[in-house]
């Protein structure tokens, strides 16, 4: 079974073609900085690799560029679209309806689009990916893997909001959680690595979107994102946690509509609002050059993560391992060091030399006498999506 995995983030698209059940990666690639003039396309197949910079305004253009690459005469891996058996999509918000891998039909697609208001940076892009690939890969099965599914194990004390119960129940207002495919994959990798049947883990997923999950014995028990993927940590363009009074002030005193406030908090805040840059690489460079806004943004970002670590250690009643994953978590040794600084009281002690080492699939970066393992784990949402899709369709 040849599976094309489409993983659309808020400003990126990762893709792979994986042969199942062998798990052989036929090709893989990444589009970064979608919506900017310098969108980067990286592509690898066998011993061939290719990169270019172009201007891609949106996810639809990005998917078309990916398809062109897959079918390229010289470096492509497909001669015809019918060679793809399954197109599997990471979908961010599944609401209360989708808690497992699901074959996509018209009603499923309509529900994904209906949930767009809860994940405005993601579900629209996910829906576009489904529509575009349905048109290109006409004979392939389409499967959705939902980020929210992993967090269905949250206990009621963690997922319920303190609003009138009848409103919450009638309108399904609760913590859904996100990045579940990534948190599931890296936590399972950590559990295998630690060789512990019973484990207490905090997974820190840091990319353009960021989240943290408290995981006890393989199950998500608390999570930083909620009803939509906008609260919790400071993100590329999203504010993360904010006092709701600020929202009312923006509406009542500044006269902004709810749509404009939502747009401000989702697309103009976070690192972008603090510095003018949404990409952490630009912010780290600015900080090194003495830009005080960039320096403050790094301090605020690491401080927010620290606070969540403390609360999750309390929720877990201890901690065996702290995991860093995703684009920033795997590649920013600076941010990892800032997060783990002055955390000895929680048993967290980072080793500067190990932290700056070349990254393996799993890298230990704690001091020898640290009570808590600090692991950098390469996430592989695409493989997890392929595994779940194959399990759904193999019979």
Structural account:
The protein is of the alpha/beta class and 395 residues long. It has helices at residues 59-70, 106-114, 123-136, 156-159, 165-170, 180-194, 244-252, 258-267, 270-275, 280-288, 292-316, 326-331, 333-340, 352-355, 381-393, and strands spanning 2-8, 13-19, 24-32, 39-45, 48-54, 86-91, 102-103, 141-146, 200-206, 210-216, 219-223, 321-325, 362-364, 373-377. The protein has 15 helices and 14 strands. The strands form 2 sheets. The protein has an 8-stranded mixed sheet, with helices on both faces. It is globular.
Write the layout of secondary structure elements.
Blueprint: E1 2-8, E2 13-19, E3 24-32, E4 39-45, E5 48-54, H1 59-70, E6 86-91, E7 102-103, H2 106-114, H3 123-136, E8 141-146, H4 156-159, H5 165-170, H6 180-194, E9 200-206, E10 210-216, E11 219-223, H7 244-252, H8 258-267, H9 270-275, H10 280-288, H11 292-316, E12 321-325, H12 326-331, H13 333-340, H14 352-355, E13 362-364, E14 373-377, H15 381-393
Parallel strand pairs: 1-6, 6-8, 9-12, 12-14
Antiparallel strand pairs: 1-2, 2-3, 3-4, 4-5, 7-8, 9-10, 10-11, 13-14
Helix pairs in contact: 1-3, 10-11, 11-13
């Amino acid at each position: 079974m040849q599976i094309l995995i489409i993983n659309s983030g808020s400003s990126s698209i990762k893709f792979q073609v994986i042969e199942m059940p062998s798990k052989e990666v036929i090709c893989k690639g990444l589009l970064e900085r979608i919506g900017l003039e310098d969108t980067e396309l990286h592509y690898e197949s066998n011993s061939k690799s290719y990169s270019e910079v172009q201007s891609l305004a949106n996810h639809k253009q990005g998917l078309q560029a990916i398809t062109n690459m897959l079918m390229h005469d010289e470096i492509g891996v497909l001669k015809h679209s019918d060679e793809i058996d399954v197109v599997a999509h990471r979908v961010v918000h599944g609401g209360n309806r989708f808690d497992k891998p699901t074959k996509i039909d018209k009603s499923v697609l309509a529900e994904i689009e209906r949930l767009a208001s809860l994940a405005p940076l993601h579900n629209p892009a996910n829906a576009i990916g489904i529509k575009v690939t349905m048109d290109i890969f006409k004979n392939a099965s389409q499967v959705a893997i939902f980020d929210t599914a992993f967090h269905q194990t949250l206990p009621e004390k963690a997922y319920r909001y303190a609003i009138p119960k009848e409103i919450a129940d009638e309108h399904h207002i609760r913590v859904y959680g996100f990045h579940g495919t990534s948190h599931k994959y890296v936590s399972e990798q950590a559990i295998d690595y630690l060789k512990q049947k019973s484990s207490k883990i905090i997974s820190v997923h840091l990319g353009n979107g960021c989240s943290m999950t408290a995981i006890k014995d393989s199950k998500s028990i608390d999570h930083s994102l909620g009803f939509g993927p906008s609260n919790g940590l400071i993100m590329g363009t999203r504010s993360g946690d904010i006092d709701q009074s600020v929202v009312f002030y923006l509406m009542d005193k500044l006269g902004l509509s709810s749509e404009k406030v939502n747009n401000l908090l989702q697309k103009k805040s976070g690192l972008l609002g603090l510095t003018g840059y949404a990409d952490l690489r630009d912010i780290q460079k600015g900080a090194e050059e003495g830009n005080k806004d960039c320096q403050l943004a790094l301090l605020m970002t690491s401080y927010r993560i620290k606070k969540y670590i403390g609360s999750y250690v309390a929720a877990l009643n201890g901690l065996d391992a702290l995991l860093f994953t995703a684009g920033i978590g795997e590649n920013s040794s600076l941010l990892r060091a800032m997060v783990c600084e002055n955390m000895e009281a929680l048993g967290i002690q980072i080793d500067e030399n190990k932290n700056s080492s070349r990254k393996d699939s799993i890298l230990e970066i704690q001091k020898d006498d640290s009570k808590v393992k600090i692991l950098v784990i390469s996430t592989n949402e695409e493989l997890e999506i392929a595994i779940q899709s194959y399990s759904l369709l193999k019979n």
